[in-house]
Design brief:
By secondary structure, this protein is an alpha/beta fold. It is built from 9 helices and 15 strands. Helix 7 links the parallel strand 13 and strand 14.
Length: 351
């Protein structure tokens, strides 16, 4: 059921609770609870009012949550006890999506649930989200945080294998050390998105990464600014000896260019890869078989990078160069073709 959080919501909740009570077994039940105002138009008072409205509904119709397997919430400022209460009531919950939801700026969200398999947390003001005890969690998507420190902590997540983390890092946000940030989690599929802003991961010694990257098979480095060099990405190859596929997505646009607007948004004034320098030592990778580069151009940094990976990956089988940029639909690049990509056979041979 997909509905707006309003005065008529109580009827929907009561009807759902009655329907659930009348059935012997409900296999799949999903609530997508929307707010009248979109996230960008929601003031702190709006979010607080929406949070109180949802809390009241939980008080009035707790049975409506008892059989939920999927729950999507947006634009809510909830009380400190509301999230733990929702987790307790939704005993069968397998999928949780939170978009612009928190408990106030700088709050801490602790997540514990016996059945939750997929968690998505987007655009929150949480200081940190602690994945304390999630024995069934397999998939995590997390994006856009304001925290000055590590925005996530990984506790007991033994089944976690797919992680997607995206952030247009602000000038004051720290560089994350993946060896520390991922904690005890050993994922096999990792996506890091930079939203055309500064690189926010710190290149590390492969000996530090070997524990958290021991099962890594697929890496997707997304929305890298065209301003950035690509050499820093080699540290992931060095730290992930079992990696089989590496996908690089470069945006051939500058994102927000207006200096005043960048300053107001808190974006860095330095080069977007200023803190991501890496001098790779001579080594060989035995398992990488696929390299994909989206937004490829016949420039030295692309060609040189591809040659470097070919030299490193001794068993490389497939290389895909995609001219089409990896930018989203709203990117100003869409509809504009680059004139830097080789158009002739000679040009392709030269590249």
């Amino acid at each position: 059921m997909r509905f707006f959080l309003g005065d008529g919501s109580i009827i929907i909740f009561q009807t759902s609770a009655n329907a659930i009570a009348a059935q012997k077994k409900v296999c799949v039940a999903e609530f997508t609870i929307l707010t009248e105002k979109e996230g960008r138009r929601c003031s702190p008072d709006d979010m607080l009012a929406y949070g109180r409205r949802l809390s009241s509904l939980v008080d009035d119709c707790p049975d409506a949550f008892s059989c939920l397997t999927r729950l999507k919430l947006e634009n809510l400022n909830l009380g400190e006890s509301d999230f733990p209460r929702i987790f307790r009531l939704c005993k069968l919950l397998q999928f949780l999506h939170l978009d612009n939801c928190d408990m106030g700026f700088g709050s801490l969200l602790e997540v514990e649930h016996p059945r939750l398999r997929e968690l998505e947390v987007f655009r929150s003001d949480f200081e940190r989200v602690d994945l304390n005890w999630l024995p069934e969690l397999t998939t995590l998507a997390f994006s856009t945080w304001l925290s000055l420190d590590d925005p996530l902590s990984f506790g007991y997540v033994p089944q976690l294998h797919t992680v997607s983390i995206r952030n247009p890092a602000l000038s004051w946000q720290k560089m994350l050390k993946l060896s520390e940030f991922l904690g005890k989690a050993t994922v096999s599929n990792l996506t890091l998105g930079f939203e055309k802003e500064k690189i926010w991961v710190k290149p590390e010694d492969p000996r530090e990464l070997s524990r958290v990257f021991s099962k890594l098979r697929l890496v997707n480095l997304a929305a890298i600014s065209n301003e950035c060099d690509l050499t820093w990405t080699v540290f992931i190859l060095q730290g992930a000896p079992s990696l089989e596929e590496l996908c690089i997505r470069v945006c051939d646009c500058s994102g927000v260019r207006n200096k005043e607007k960048r300053k107001n948004l808190g974006y860095s004034e330095e080069r977007k890869d200023a803190d991501a320098k890496w001098e790779a030592s001579d080594f060989k990778h035995n398992n990488l078989s696929v390299l994909r580069i989206f937004g490829f151009q016949s420039e030295d940094k692309f060609v040189g990078y591809a040659r470097a990976v070919m030299h490193i990956a001794v068993n490389l089988k497939d290389i895909y160069f995609h001219e089409k940029p990896a930018c989203k639909v709203e990117c100003a690049y869409i509809g504009r073709r680059s004139n830097k990509y080789p158009r002739s056979v000679d040009g392709e041979d030269h590249a």
